Write the structure tokens for this entry.
Amino acid sequence: MPLPSLTADAIELGATAVDWREAVHLVGEVLTRSGAATPAYGDEMVRMIEEHGPYVVIAPGLALAHARPGPAVLADGFAIVTLATPVNFGHPHNDPVKVVVGLAIKTADTHLAAVAQLANVFNDSSAIAELAAATSTTEVQRIMGTP
Amino acid sequence: MKIVVICGAGIGSSGILKVNAERVLKKLDIRATVVAVDVTSLAEAAAGAQVILTSSEFVGAIAEIGASNADVVVVNNYFDTAELTEKIEAALG
């Protein structure tokens, strides 16, 4: 599966969240709005972090929120939320988080091509700061290389 | 050579780390199989692994399972191929 397209309704810029839970719930709501997941998926993403810790903060300023494939995933998709005020996840190196990427995956087997494309984008170390500073959905789509 | 990548779900973040580890290994001209698994599948997956790549949250769980003599390498920035290169080289060197 290639990286699914990032439609404008899968992007929320300058959102406000009081803590990491709210930030993850926000990206869950955006995944629901774009048709990738049911509202339950937000709870599942939060539960993954409660269970395993803030390992989803995989780079400075960036959280890759996700849960397992399951009935809460309606379609492969991803969403981007940028935060007006960064929040801490409790990560030893990568806090505070400015950009939350939500990932919904139908089947684990086919998702590596999609994450390889995500890696292509974020291996450029300026991408996270560019996303955090983006003021329009078209700008985000350009940075992510997907309409 | 076998390298295991651990995360909570076995998808997503471990997928990113697998993809980038493979890129680094290719550049270093090291032949290795990189397997991404969730932490509950670790005991089985870690058999015969030389290196386990993960984030600091899973170090305790890996030690508890104690299933492997593999070097446990903590990666801070999954997208920083310079960090990955340095740590993989150190673990295999």
Remarks:
- Chain A has a mean pLDDT of 94.
- The beta strands of chain A are 11-15, 62-66, 77-87, 97-104.
- The longest helix of chain A spans residues 20-33.
- The radius of gyration of chain A is 14 Å.
